[in-house]
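Dataset card, provenance and construction

Sequences and ligand SMILES were collected as paired inputs. For each pair, a complete structure of the chain with the small molecule in place was predicted and serialized as structure tokens. The example below shows a pair involving adenosine-5'-triphosphate. Curators did not alter the output after generation; any descriptive sentences attached to a record were derived from the structure itself.
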Amino acid sequence: MLEIKGLRAQVEGKEILHGIDLCVYPGEVHAIMGPNGSGKSTLAKVLAGREGYGIVNGEVRFNGKNLLVMQPEDRARAGIFLGFQYPVEIPGISNMYFLKTALNSIRKNRGLEELDAMDFLALAKEKMKLVDMDESLMRRAVNEGFSGGEKKRNEIFQMAVLEPQLAILDETDSGLDIDALKTIASGINALRRQDRAMILVTHYQRLLNYIVPNKVHVLLDGRIVRSGGKELALELEEKGYGWLEEETIREQAVNS
Amino acid sequence: MSANSNIEELANREYKYGFVTDIETDTIPRGLNEEIIRLISAKKNEPEFMLDWRLKAYRHWQTMKDPTWANVHFEPINYQDICYYAAPKMKSKPKSLDEVDPELLATYEKLGIPLRERDLLAGVAVDAVFDSISVATTFKEKLAELGIIFCSFSEAVQNHPELVRRYLGDVVPFTDNLFAALNSAVFSDGSFCYIPKGVRCPMELSTYFRINAASTGQFERTLIIADEGSYVSYLEGCTAPMRDENQLHAAVVELIAHDNAQIKYSTVQNWYPGDKNGKGGIFNFVTKRGKCKGVNSKISWTQVETGSAITWKYPSCILMGDNSIGEFYSVALTNNYQQADTGTKMIHMGKNTRSTIVSKGISAGHGQNTYRGMVKILKNADNARNYSRCDSLLLSDKCGAHTFPYIEVKNSTALMEHEASTSKIGEDQLFYCQQRGISSEAAVSMIVNGFCKEVFKELPMEFAVEAQKLLGVSLEGCVG
Ligand SMILES: Nc1ncnc2c1ncn2[C@@H]1O[C@H](COP(=O)(O)OP(=O)(O)OP(=O)(O)O)[C@@H](O)[C@H]1O
Ligand SMILES: [Mg+2]
């Protein structure tokens, strides 16, 4: 489904991603971990098409299509969803209206009939249950004045409504209390499907207890330095990233 | 493509109302002198007092200079090169719509303002002003049953001279400013409205202004009087053909609210803004002012300004009556090379008077947007309150937003609150919308609409929808 080859990307003239290779197949859940500033969010934004991130080299294919030439909205319509680490506020536009517009532009693009207000409301209500979201949030402006946890809940709720093929969730577990983490994790689990893949960016092994990943990758200074099964996450939890850094330096020394 | 360069491509789109109606017009020679004023007055068969007033205004105008304090730039206007009267030729004033030239009816149809009552929005009565004269007023009889007078200004001069004489220039004297003086000298028509004591006007009253003839200025005058305990909501809309030269529109609007009366005045201004290089377009130099004469009276201005090459306009309130309320809600959008210098004046004279100012300026392309507001609390205005909020949104790197709030307080019990913000349309916001599948163009329009929400909610329902669409259209091409 997603194929990243030798991806190097820069922002403001500074190269952040130094060659990423990653393959994600339908039905899989990949976790990406790594220290602050290692480039996790950068990777997520490059995949979603955020302006200002320049591609230095490499290739990304999504269902065979060259993703890097597509506009962000076309990537979304093709089935890519990014759960933001910092969801954005849009004053004056209700959450309900925003999501309905989003869903309908995606549907329209796929040749499906647009949902009217009633049908949309019914759908929204059903999906709200999934993340136990308060209905009053629907009438408020998009993310405006939402608490950190409410914003994250809202991201997963949007994902549930938009039903993407590939969901990239950037630190959706950060800033959640323990109960909220459970609710959201079970919401995400409920959205796991044979034909849907997920990339979870996280700092905490705890999330992966609830959502068991097929693969875990460690991103360090713009490179994936190690990949493994879910036991890798446990190892990281125990040892931190220091040993990997040392190992990487040693390997680089050997290689050169 | 970057969102920035996207946004810079703003508005390469055609102005939808730029067509010209081919109709025979009765015009007078260009230029301005006492003869011309006598001619206009004679054409309108006016009583002596009107001619005298016009001549006084003209003589005063001759002593005045173009105002220079506004943050707008244009070549000096050659007042002798303008035609001050142009009217579609009619054998006699049509008595009913059946007698109105079909070409004219078709024009309004095309503008989305059907004049036949059966086609009209049920709740709106329309006075249609074409160049210098009013061509039709709908629902007149129905309103007359309630004692409401809603007619063209010319008719009011003929049929209600005592009201005109009493109120004309009461709020905006011809000495006020150069454009007001010019208007007073040459104004040809406009709308007149009187709501009698205790009557709540059951429908929205509206005037639709259309400039058609070339080299013609439009100088209309609107006078609205709400007698004790009455209420009226009034809407104003306008368009003009696309022409390469600038055309002058210098209107005067006067509102008077007596004890316990309320006037709500809404404008959606969509004059031709000029092309994308800044050629042509309407100079919209308008004086609008309301007087809250009576106790507990209220005047509320709501404006959505998207058109005109230059807008120079400050709908204001004079709060004379104790406990009276003035409000000003404004959205002004400038794109390409448009310039807007707009805002309000709130003059607090009575006790416990309150005013609210909410201004939203949006600049795109090379547009320049200036908010200029004055709040004046006079000596006797005990416990006056003002709340002002001015927000500016920038959609490009080449446009500008400027805010000039003036405050003058002569009474220490006054309470003033002022908030202001300037923000660039967030790339994060745009990206967030796009990531959810919304096109960048729809996203800009959505973000801008959200930004204007506080103002739009003050507009009557149909108008709010219209205003949202208009903003969308004015921003089209803003993003590629
Ligand atoms: N717009 C920008 N301008 C300059 N540097 C940037 C920009 N965006 C990201 N960076 C830099 O790129 C690096 C990677 O940032 P990124 O946000 O991808 O890290 P992250 O792995 O998501 O970290 P965290 O775990 O803290 O969220 C950081 O050093 C960051 O400062
Ligand atoms: Mg991050």
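Derived descriptions for this record:
The mean pLDDT of chain A is 92.
Residues 13 and 148 of chain A are 31 Å apart (CA to CA).
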